[in-house]
Write a structure and sequence with these properties.
7 helices; 366 residues; eight-stranded antiparallel beta sheet; 3 domains; alpha+beta; DNA Polymerase III, Chain A, domain 2; twelve-stranded antiparallel beta sheet
Length: 366
């Protein structure tokens, strides 16, 4: 028996653009497919890598409900070759095939047994709250997470009961503060711990969210991140996030401020000096309201002076402070104005801009 279904081409194409990013690290051939479920004039299309399940729901006009799985890359490739307001599919349940009708072409795909596709039991939701995290906030946080596969807790994004979003690898820390306090009582009474979202889920989330926020739900085994039209179900990470607050000094002796123009000039300097054969830059404050920054390797040196506020108050042992070039670049990228708080050349420094905070550990270099 053949079933016809029509969906919006743009909606399906946008969904496939994100679904193809869900990549299986277990090399199971069944996970190369997407699961398509048509029911009550909605098409739900999902893909999993066993840790995450990304799902999109699209309005559809269908003559009958059906379920099938087809190759993800093939479906995306066929959609990319066509352009129309609506796209029509014919599902043949007798021959187990799904045919997409283009303007001039027909694209026929073999369907596989969907009963073999990994599924999850529906769990009762214990907690749901609205997150105000924006896309730029998430892009700011992502570089702070550890890249070390053995440190699975630090490879995650920490969501605290106080509405703070934390990412750290032990050498630098990124934090976004929000007013997302929904569920605070639940956390305090039940477990007194934070939610951890894996790095794989964060990378997927960057392609999904906008500046309108999203919902975070927690069940026994999973965390679900969702917005209208999509949901990302993430396997919970067992483990406690380290006490990140202990690396931030309670007080600072000196503070330096730079406006948005100076910050832009500093960003340009860091981009130019990226080619240097060194991973550090040196900061010093030699004169009234100025900051010198130097990038130096064995063959060359780049130096620039920037206008700052209160720079004349800072006297450092050894006259300079060394910071990791990449961490400094990532830290200020999404900041406009920047306030830098310093104690001495060996203790952590803090950079802030509105609700963004970065903590960097100075480098010990000659």
């Amino acid at each position: 028996m053949e079933t016809q279904v029509k969906v919006n081409w743009h909606d399906l194409k946008d969904a496939m653009k994100q679904l193809v990013k869900v990549k299986d690290s277990n090399y199971l051939s069944i996970l190369e497919n997407v699961l398509i479920e048509v029911k009550n004039n909605f098409m739900t299309i999902s893909k999993t890598d066993l840790d995450n399940v990304l799902k999109f729901t699209i309005i559809a006009v269908a003559s009958i409900d059906f379920t099938c799985i087809v190759d993800c890359k093939k479906l995306k490739g066929y959609l990319d070759k066509e352009k129309a307001e609506r796209i029509t599919f014919h599902y043949d349940s007798d021959n187990l095939s799904l045919t997409m009708l283009g303007k001039k072409r027909k694209y026929k795909m073999i369907c596989f047994d969907y009963s073999e596709y990994p599924s999850r039991d529906k769990e009762e939701i214990d907690l749901t709250f609205a997150s105000s995290l924006t896309l730029n906030n998430l892009k700011f946080l992502e570089p702070g997470m550890s890249k070390d596969a053995t440190r699975y807790v630090l490879k995650s994004l920490c969501v605290t009961p106080q509405g703070e979003y934390i990412a750290t690898d032990g050498r630098h820390l990124h934090k976004v503060s929000t007013n997302d306090t929904t569920g605070l009582d639940y956390f305090q009474c039940q477990a007194n711990k934070s939610l951890l979202i894996s790095d794989k889920a964060v990378k997927l989330l960057i392609g999904l969210i906008d500046d309108n926020g999203f919902d975070i739900s927690e069940s026994e085994k999973y965390i679900t991140l969702s917005q209208y039209g999509w949901s990302l179900e993430v396997k919970k990470i067992d483990g406690l996030y380290p006490n990140w607050k202990q690396v931030i000094p309670s007080t600072f002796e000196h503070k330096v401020s730079m406006d948005d123009l100076t910050k832009k000039e500093l960003t340009e300097f860091l981009a130019v000096s990226k080619s240097m054969d060194t991973d550090s830059v040196k900061l010093s404050f030699p004169e009234y309201d100025t900051m010198d920054i130097v990038s130096k390797d064995e063959l060359s040196e780049i130096q620039e002076t920037f206008q700052v506020t209160n720079g004349h108050e800072i006297k450092l042992e050894g006259d300079s402070l060394s910071l990791n070039h990449e961490y400094l670049t990532q830290g200020i990228k999404y900041m406009d104005t920047v306030e830098i708080s310093i104690n001495d050349r060996y203790k952590p420094i803090r950079m802030t801009c509105e609700n963004l905070l970065v903590v960097l550990m100075p480098m010990r270099v000659n």
